[in-house]
Write a structure and sequence with these properties.
- The protein has about 120 residues and is mainly beta.
- It has one domain: Rieske [2Fe-2S] iron-sulphur domain (Rieske Iron-sulfur Protein, 3-layer Sandwich), CATH 2.102.10.
Length: about 120
């Protein structure tokens, strides 16, 4: 499986700590998987072979976004239908009003690294 990190930010990354959370093979194309990262549940989505990392908790009522549906780069929360862009964490449709935190993600060999 050939995957690449998708969440490359335009602004320079200063003091970003990347931590190994698993293997790049852990997230199949079109799927999401939650990893524990320093006490926070981080969701990694594989959208068209690119990996995106974001906090797994919906900002509306705290539901797990991993229980929702991934369609391209849009994740829909199973609880109340809020939609987020997995590439940036932006709210695409409410009732959520606040974005989820987007995290840098990187693949080194088979190691999957995410921003702590």
């Amino acid at each position: 499986m050939n995957v690449e990190a998708g969440a490359e930010r335009d602004e320079p990354e200063t003091n970003v700590t990347l931590v190994r959370i698993g293997s790049s093979k852990d997230v199949a194309a079109g799927q999401m998987r939650v990893f524990e990262l320093e006490g926070t549940k981080v969701n990694v989505a594989n959208a068209a072979g690119k990996l995106y990392a974001f906090d797994d908790t919906c900002t509306h009522t705290g539901c797990s976004l991993a229980r929702g549906k991934l369609d391209g780069t849009t994740v829909t929360c199973a609880c109340h239908g809020s939609q987020f862009d997995v590439t940036s964490g932006a709210v695409l449709r409410g009732p959520a009003r606040r974005p989820v935190r987007s995290r840098s993600v990187k693949v080194e060999g088979e190691n999957l690294l995410a921003e702590a």
